[in-house]
Amino acid sequence: MKRIVFAVGLVVLVFGVAIISQTQIESVEQELIKLENKWADAWVKRDVAFFDRIIADDYTWTSPRGDVWTKAQDLALVKSGEAVIKSWVLADMKVRVYGDTAVVTGRNTIKETYKGEDVSGQNRWTHTWVKRAGRWQCVAAHSSEIAQK
C-alpha cells in the first residue's frame, strides 16, 4: 500500500513539475513575442531608447547584405533617419527557450527606404535573446532577404 501511495505521489509530482515548466516556457514565449512586436514598432517610431534597453552591449546584427553591425551602429542608424520604415509586419514567429537563452525566428514584411532607396521586401530573421539581470536582451540578430518571384 505504501508503495502505491509513493508511486502515485511521484507521478503527481512529475506531472506537476512538467506543467509548471511548460507554463513558464509559454510565459517566456509570450514575453519574447511581445518584445519582437515592440521591436518592429520601435523601428517605425525610431524609438532609440527602446533599442538601447533591449539590445545588449555585445550585440551583433548580420544584415541581408552580409554586413555586421554593432549596437552602437544600430542605434546610430535609428537616430540618423537614413532608414525610414513605414511599416514592419511580423509573421511565422517561433520561440525556442533554453533556460535563460531563447532563439526567436520569423518572417517580416517591411516597407522601407534606406538612404533614399526603396529596400522594401520580406526577410527571414533570427534573434538570440539572453536573460540578464532579470530582463531579456537581444545579443545577436541575422536577417536574410526572401527572393521576390
User: How many angstroms does the end-to-end distance come to?
Assistant: 68 Å
Low-pLDDT regions = none
Helical fraction equals 40-55%
| Total helical elements | 3
CATH architecture: Roll
Give the count of structural domains.
Answer: 1
What are the secondary-structure elements, in order, as H or E?
HHEEHEEEEE
From the 3D structure, determine the CATH topology. Answer: Nuclear Transport Factor 2, Chain: A
Mean pLDDT: 89
Total strands: 7
Task: Describe this entry's structure for a reader.
This protein is an alpha+beta fold and 149 residues long. 41% of the residues lie in helices and 44% in strands. It has a single domain (2-145), classed as Nuclear Transport Factor 2, Chain: A (Roll), CATH 3.10.450.50. A hairpin with a 2-residue loop joins strand 4 and strand 5.
List the helices and strands and how they pair.
Elements: H1 2-45, H2 48-54, E1 55-62, E2 68-70, H3 71-80, E3 83-98, E4 101-114, E5 117-118, E6 121-132, E7 135-145
Parallel strand pairs: 1-7
Antiparallel strand pairs: 1-2, 3-4, 4-5, 4-6, 6-7
Short structural description:
The chain has a single domain, classed as Roll (Nuclear Transport Factor 2, Chain: A), CATH 3.10.450.50. The mean pLDDT is 89. It is 41% helix and 44% strand.
Name its key features.
Nuclear Transport Factor 2, Chain: A, elongated
